Amino acid sequence: MQKRIGIGTRAALVAGLALCTLAACATLQQLIQPLRFSSATGRQAELRLLGPSTGRPLGGLGVRLWARVENPNPMGVNLTRITGNLFLSDIQAGTVDLPFGLPLPAQGDTTFPVDVSISFSDIPGLAGLFTRAISGASIPYRLDGRFGVGAGALGNFDFGPQTLLTGSATVFR
């Protein structure tokens, strides 16, 4: 003998399942903690003067930042993307849009370079940095942005906006 479930009981079951699903999603979001970024100790950020070319008629700067990223999660994840704006001496100098597939072990860390090329013709305010950089002065930088984390079967997560890196860079000779 089969017992039939009434419409009210079905609605209660569907509502209960929906609530459990929402609770599971909230738990997943809390399970994946944001990565922690910092400038890598022992690795100096570098400015390289770039000569004039077709794409940079006035020359420009090549900027290499060294980032350290820590994974506080109890499982390995992948850093999938970094997007943002690079500021040199509080002047927006360029944009960063780096796709990655950088695996990060559980509760581990790694160091990697972030390279940006900037044309002086794109940012007239940076021309003054040229003189300071040549004289050997360090140039403060800040990278503000967002980042993506791939957590396998748990899905992909986006974090930010936030300041990812700060420090100072000098001309690489």
List keywords for this structure.
single chain, 173 residues, alpha+beta, Immunoglobulin-like, 2 domains, eight-stranded mixed β-sheet
Strand content: over 45%
For the record, the count of structural domains works out to 2
Q: On the 0-100 scale, what is the average pLDDT?
A: 85
Low-confidence stretches: none
Shape: elongated
End-to-end distance, in Å?
Answer: 87 Å
For the biggest sheet, the summary is: 8 strands, mixed
Q: How many DSSP E strands? A: 8
Q: What CATH architecture of the largest domain do you see?
A: Sandwich
The first-level CATH class name of the largest domain: Mainly Beta
Number of helices: 2
CATH topology of the largest domain: Immunoglobulin-like
> H/E element string?
HEEEEEEHEE
Radius of gyration: 23 Å
* Share of helical residues: 10-25%
- Class derived from helix and strand content: alpha+beta
Question: Could you describe the 3D structure shown?
Answer:
19% of the residues lie in helices and 50% in strands. It contains 2 helices and 8 strands; from the N terminus they run αββββββαββ. The radius of gyration is 23 Å and the shape is elongated. With 173 residues, it is α+β, with helices and mostly antiparallel strands. Strands 1, 2, 3, 4, 5, 6, 7 and 8 form an 8-stranded mixed β-sheet that branches. The mean pLDDT is 85. The protein folds into 2 domains: 31 residues; 137 residues, Sandwich (Immunoglobulin-like), CATH 2.60.40.1820.
